[in-house]
Amino acid sequence: MNDNVKSPWPGPAGLIPVTSGRADDANVYNRSYLDSLHVEMRVIDAVEPSLTTEIFGELFSSPIMMPAFSHLNKVGKDGRKPMLEYAKAARSLNTLNWVGMEPDEEYAEIAAEGARTVRIIKPFADHATILSQIQFAITHGAIAVGVDIDHVPGTDGHYDVVDGLPLGPVTLPDLKAYVKAADSTPFVAKGVLSVQDAQKCREAGCRAIVISHHHGRIPFGIAPLMALPRIRKALEGSGIAIFVDCGIDTGYDAYKALALGADAVSVGRGILKPLLQQGTEGVEEKVRKMNEQLSELMMYTCVKDTHSFDATVLYG
Questions:
Q1: The model's pTM
Q2: Mean pLDDT for all residues in the chain
Q3: Beta bridge partners of 211
Q4: C-alpha to C-alpha distance for 153 and 168, rounded to whole angstroms
Q5: 193 Cβ contact partners less than 8 Å away, ≥ 6 residues apart
Q6: Is the CB of residue 295 less than 8 Å from the CB of residue 51?
């Protein structure tokens, strides 16, 4: 962990945002944490960097990925389906695409757009549904599959229910069973926010985790980048890919996550407005701008490629 980045709060005294435990406040806290991290300049010997990133053995043009959106086809207009629009953007940009909770027929339509795609499945109480959706995704060419482990509790203190479908717990034996069902297809646990869960994911055989609080699902949740350095250290040498989401809105945000040890980042709400307003073109414009910002900050700090990030550049 970078000694310059203090925990639990790196910002100046008196700037800790007031929070009530609501999701919106968690996002304010997360934004404040991201903005409190500052960067020193290292420009001698700096060169224009390469953003090429290897994920699950395949090369992508950038470590900035699409998010695991769900249900957006319900708000399509002018004949455009948002879930398909951002899949088209992922294919055009050669970046990794993610898809959240969608029925099989919708997932098949998205996968047919040709972007390399990770399917994230809800922790349904009916385990047969999870296993079935894992196999369906693999049959339709998914680069990886996974489960939203952070979507177990509901706000009523019971297991959550989504679209009328009851969700349930994810035990370590469950996770091992899902990894086994995926066979040679990498399995991802999305919603890790502690060393404890990260170590259990390693024990289960997961090939990747997403450090995330699902935009404030847990009341008073820490910012994902707070947990990132400790998790990175705990998983050192495991070969597990570490991804991060929540609040990544600029290439500068992405830089901070990558400097702290992420292998790649997902941008969600940052592309939501351009996606719904402009479709594929809006998403492409947003991500290209983020890539420019990421490249700019990499040059300012003498980072030549995505293997060369150094956490000691950050101050908080």
A1: 0.92
A2: 92
A3: 192, 244
A4: 8
A5: 150, 211, 212, 213, 218, 221, 222, 224, 227
A6: yes
Structure tokens at 68: 């695991």
Q: Classify strands 264-266 and 241-244 as parallel, antiparallel or unpaired.
A: parallel
Per-residue pLDDT reduced to its tens digit, 278-288: 999 999 999 99
The C-alpha R_g of the chain, in whole angstroms, comes to 19
Per-residue DSSP letter, 67: -
Amino acid at 242: I
Q: What letter does residue 222 receive in the DSSP assignment?
A: P
Positive or negative, the CA dihedral 133, 138, 139, 141 is: positive
**pLDDT tens digits for range 208-233:** 999 999 988 999 999 999 999 999 99
Mean pLDDT of 235-254: 97
The whole-angstrom separation of Cα 113 and Cα 48 is 32
Q: Which residue in this structure is represented by tokens 């992922």?
A: 90
Residue 186, both tokens = 């990498």
